[in-house]
Design brief:
heterodimer; A: mainly beta; 6-stranded mixed beta sheet; B: 3-stranded mixed beta sheet; two-stranded antiparallel ribbon; 5 strands; globular
């Protein structure tokens, strides 16, 4: 991203419930754990992705995930873990 | 049962030296009682400044001292821990750095003032037809430019109050509005300057690069600054100035004569004999005249009282941190409000405001609240740039809005010690009380408003999925 693009980036409104398309890959913080599905989840704004292939130990890590499905109406979806890439700041 | 996306543990106050090594102080009545000294001081400051209309920095220091004594009476256990905690706070680099910045800025600004800068500025403004209202707007722009260039809002405040404030008075500008314009310029620079300590802290604590942080916050600063400029010009036309006749003369931007910078007034019976041929020595005819003077002396001396006050305030803040009231306050705010991303961002703005009300040096306030902003934002995958912007903009703004904040107090002190004694036409009645100026810090208020609206509407919001900040680099 050029310097000019950095200054022009973000001059728009962003939804509190961001949507995802299948096969997109993203880097997200895994923010909690859902015992019902036994998966960690990534809460992005008010949307939630449940990440298959994760355990409770993956909570509070930064992971690369691939989206497998997403329901825009419910702002809920699923993704699969590709790799753990780090930890959040705090 | 699920593990909720909540704050599971209280983050440490990272970034402040020795934060894990100090004593923990316990209080009768619980941890909230550790807020007694700082709350007492805030009440004292409001009563003294707003109700009694007394602008006396040493009076505020007396209030802080009494607050610290009252707090000590509630300590459970050894009073030595309480005292050591105050010493630990007073020795924090953020407090000492502010003191050094004030002393140097005061010294240089007074020396430039002694060189005739103000009179020259009045002449120049008169020559190009700039009068009171427009001068206020231009002062805001130039203060913002200087603060963005040098990265210190405090230094900018001292320099502009010493140099532009009297010039604006001579040109018919309203003093309260002019002070608000100077503080607004300081807010602009503290928020946007890549070399500003608050900018750097906001970037580093949120794990974002400084260049990217500055670029991403440009839009918020611009949206607030344009209407602020219009407001300053419009209000400048509507608000009456002071009626004085200026001694305008040709501009001379330079240093004062050596004798104006530093002079030793020695007694006639000094052992060195008559050395008055030296440019920095005068012979005092009366004993009361003996002493050291000049702009270097008076410029620095004018900030001694506020330097002591700030050290005492940080001591009081440290009691609140070590006593547990600080953590308890934040946990209560964050856990009871932050349930959606919109409410989370609004609570970030509110928490930063709350902490800046208590910790009056904005750098210290930012360091203290930064881990909470990071933790809270990460729960909703809010991007590091956005978190840094919410953190810094509101810190920069409110550090120059609250009447008891370091930014307002140092400007007030500069008016009292650098302007009042220097100009015959400037009377004590023209000194701007901190309680009067806060509504006129237009850029500060607009910047806070921009972030409240941005949090509510989602303007400028970024998630971690939108882009990854560059690697953090330091200047």
């Amino acid at each position: 991203m050029s310097l000019l693009e950095k200054y022009l980036y973000g001059w728009r409104r962003r939804s509190s419930r961001p949507s995802f398309d299948p096969d997109e890959t993203h880097r997200v913080i895994l923010t909690g754990f859902d015992d019902a599905t036994a998966t960690a989840r990534a809460r992005v704004g008010d949307s939630v992705l449940r990440v298959d292939g994760t355990t409770r130990e993956h909570v509070d890590t930064v992971a690369r995930v691939r989206v497998t499905e997403f329901d825009e109406g419910a702002a809920q979806g699923r993704a699969e873990l590709l790799e753990v890439v780090g930890e959040p700041v705090y | 049962m699920s593990t909720d996306d909540t704050l599971e543990e209280s983050p440490d106050l990272e970034g402040i030296e020795e934060d894990g090594d100090g004593p923990t102080v316990e209080f009768r009545g619980g941890k909230w009682m550790s807020a007694v000294p700082i709350v007492f001081f805030i009440v004292w400051a409001i009563v003294q400044s707003a109700l009694f209309r007394v602008g006396d920095t040493t009076g505020l220091a007396a209030g802080m001292l009494i607050g610290l004594i009252i707090g000590m009476l509630f300590v459970r256990g050894d009073w030595a821990d309480y005292a050591n905690t105050i010493f630990e706070g007073m020795s924090q680099p953020v407090a000492v750095t502010a003191v050094v910045a004030w002393l140097w800025a005061g010294m240089f600004a007074a020396t430039i003032q002694a060189g005739g800068f103000v009179e020259g500025l009045v002449w120049l403004a008169d020559a190009v037809g700039v009068e009171g209202a427009l001068f206020v707007g231009i002062t805001f722009l130039l203060a913002g430019l200087l603060a963005t260039g040098i990265g210190t809002g405090y230094g900018t405040t001292v320099a502009f109050v010493t140099l532009f404030f009297p010039a604006g008075g001579l040109l018919g500008a309203n003093p309260t509005l002019l002070f608000g314009a100077i503080l607004s310029g300081a807010v602009f620079g503290d928020n946007l300057a890549p070399v500003s300590d608050t900018t750097i802290i906001s970037a580093v604590t949120q794990d974002a690069d400084i260049g990217g942080v500055v670029a991403s916050r440009f839009k918020y600063a611009l949206i607030a600054a344009v209407p602020a400029f219009v407001l300053f010009v419009a209000a400048g036309s509507a608000m009456a100035g002071i009626d004085v006749a200026g001694d305008a003369r040709e501009i001379f931007v330079g240093l004062a004569a050596v004798s104006k910078m530093l002079v030793f007034r020695i007694p006639t019976d000094a052992p060195v004999g008559d050395v008055s041929f030296l440019p920095v020595v005068e012979t005092a005819t009366e004993a009361s005249e003996v002493g050291v003077g000049g702009s270097i002396y008076s410029g620095a001396a004018g900030f001694f009282a506020i330097s002591i006050l700030i050290l005492l305030i940080i001591g009081g803040v440290w009691i609140m941190v070590r006593g547990g009231a600080f953590d308890a306050l934040l946990e209560w705010v964050l856990e009871s409000i932050a349930t959606t991303v919109r409410r989370t961002e609004l609570s970030m703005v509110g928490s930063v405001a709350l902490i800046n009300a208590a910790i009056t040096i904005n750098t210290a306030a930012e360091i203290a609240i930064a881990p909470y902003v990071a933790r809270l934002g990460e729960r909703f995958n809010v991007n590091a740039y956005r978190r840094a912007n919410i953190l810094d903009a509101n810190t920069a703004a409110l550090g120059y809005i609250f009447p008891w904040s370091g930014g307002v107090l140092v400007g007030f002190e500069a008016i009292r010690t650098q302007v009042l004694p220097e100009y015959e036409w400037f009377t004590a009645a023209m000194v701007v009380n901190p309680a009067d100026v806060f509504p006129y810090v237009f850029h500060g208020w607009l910047l806070v408003a921009v972030f409240v609206i941005a949090a509510w509407t989602g303007f400028g919001r970024e998630y971690t999925i939108d882009r990854v900040p560059d690697e953090v680099t330091t200047l």
